[in-house]
Write a structure and sequence with these properties.
The chain is α/β, with parallel strands linked by helices. The chain contains eleven helices and twelve strands. It folds into two domains: about 35 residues, no CATH class; about 290 residues, TIM Barrel (Alpha-Beta Barrel), CATH 3.20.20.
Length: about 375
């Protein structure tokens, strides 16, 4: 059901029904218990995640495998979902970025393959729609339909990793549709499977989970996961952020940054990110650059500046290249570790904040217009 008006400032408490995870979303320990052998569990994971790209890329269980006999495989039948995830549409941009629309039961979600020299990245979605209402985001215009299960996030990885088989996928970012901290249990399971032995075996630091700033979720994530966190900040005053990201009224920016500062001292070896979406005339002034440098002082994070990616119905624009450069230079001069992330896959609407599951962005238009009116 779409989210009710007015409920967007709270963390959604969804009724969680007992769910039997699909076999590809079971941890090594769970598979070992089910198959009565770690060897068999590892054999199954090898077949699943490490098969050559020339073989069919299907999540369907075969009747038997060399490493796992028919009798043992049949124990996994209750872990086969009735409908397998499928790729409904694929769009490829000139820069090689590939956006796929996936059918996950009734849900339509988008995931993006981003080619980069020697370190391809997959951007995964964690919800069908989103619980939050960031005014610049196309996903927000869909409303919220439901959380995705870990198996649905992992299916995105499985179905998209072979876009360029000669280069391994080394990075995963949970920056697609949805707010990961609102679906943390399932996101943590997906991260565990991406990083566990026998699976895709990504380094935990190479998996980045993004958040619009859900304080309790951020704290739990920092305690329970070794993956990286990316806080989407996008403003330099509370007032500015309240307008862009309504949940800031519940968990103000100052408290989010204080948490990162505290955990920077508690966990000095971890590295996190702050992303800053640059919106022309809204948060791109010299004063913003000075305030941003001040806000980040003493927090061990890297800052990613992201020029706004236009999408249908949005009145926002990216600043000029000169403005962006000036902003970046001011931050560098103030000692902030900072990169400009140039958008990829713009012509297929695959860049940050453009994913909307093919849905109309009419509501985004209204939200953005109301934010502009208040500016
Ligand atoms: S930016 Fe992220 S948290 Fe905000 S509405 Fe979009 S998907 Fe949701």
């Amino acid at each position: 059901m779409p989210q009710q008006e007015g409920s967007h400032l709270q963390t959604p408490h969804m009724r969680t029904e007992a769910h039997t995870p699909a076999y590809w979303a079971m941890t090594l320990e769970e598979l070992t218990a089910k198959l009565h052998s770690r060897q068999r569990a590892l054999g199954l994971l090898r077949w699943l995640w490490h098969r050559p790209p020339t073989l069919p890329q299907t999540l369907e269980l075969p009747p038997h495998l060399e490493a796992v006999g028919h009798r043992w495989l049949s124990l996994l039948q209750p872990h086969m979902p009735p409908l397998l995830p499928e790729v409904l549409q694929r769009l490829q941009a000139e820069d090689g970025t590939c956006k796929a629309l996936l059918g996950l039961g009734e849900a339509r979600v988008e995931a993006v393959y981003i080619p980069q020299r020697g370190r391809n990245t997959l951007c995964l979605s964690c919800q069908y729609g989103c619980t939050r209402r960031c005014v610049f985001c196309a996903t927000a215009s869909m409303g919220f339909m439901r959380h995705l299960k870990a198996e649905e996030m992992l299916a995105q990885f499985f179905l998209l990793r072979w876009v360029r088989p000669e280069v391994a996928v080394r990075n995963v970012v949970f920056m697609g549709m949805g707010e990961p901290m609102d679906n943390l249990e399932e996101v943590l399971r997906a991260v565990q499977i991406l990083t566990q032995p026998g699976g895709p075996c990504l380094r935990a630091q190479k998996v980045t989970v993004s958040t619009s700033g859900i304080l309790p979720g951020m704290q739990r994530f920092l305690e329970e996961s070794q993956a990286s966190l990316a806080l989407s900040l996008n403003a330099t005053t509370e007032e500015q952020r309240n307008r862009l990201m309504p949940q800031n009224r519940l968990w103000p920016m100052g408290e989010l940054l204080a948490l990162l500062r505290r955990y920077g001292k508690l966990q000095p070896k971890r590295e996190h990110f702050v992303s800053y979406l640059m919106l022309k005339g809204l948060n791109d002034s010299e004063e913003d650059a000075v305030r941003l440098a001040h806000l980040l002082k003493g927090i061990p994070v890297r800052l990613n500046l992201i020029p706004f990616n236009a999408h249908e119905g949005s009145p926002f624009e990216a600043p000029s290249i000169e403005k962006l450069k000036g902003f970046w230079q001011n931050l560098k001069a103030a000692g902030v570790r900072c990169l400009v992330r140039w958008p990829k896959g713009q012509e297929v609407a695959a860049a940050c904040g453009q994913l909307a599951g093919g849905a109309s962005t009419r509501r985004g238009q209204k939200l953005a217009a109301s934010a502009e009116a208040k500016t």
